[in-house]
Amino acid sequence: MNRKQSYLLNAGLFFVAGMILFLRPNRDLAMGGISLSLAVATLVLAFRDDQTKP
Predict the structure, then answer these.
(1) Predicted structure pTM score
(2) Rounded to an integer, what distance in angstroms lies between the CA atom of residue 26 and that of residue 31?
(3) Which stretches of the chain score pLDDT less than 50?
(4) Distances (CA, A) of 9 to 5, 12, 39
(5) 3-state DSSP call for residue 14?
(6) To bridge 14 with a disulfide, which of 8, 29, 39, 43 should be the other Cys (CB 3.0-4.6 Å)?
């Protein structure tokens, strides 16, 4: 698994965790927001990742 795939996997896991925290009956908006923002940050890292660098 290369770096881009691991970034995408992490982003997916953060997104799922954030949506679970937002959509459950007793919402935890702070932790859900942090998790969703981490998902966005790792997506940005995944698409800015340059494989030509060592």
Answers:
(1) 0.79
(2) 12
(3) none
(4) 6, 5, 10
(5) helix
(6) 39
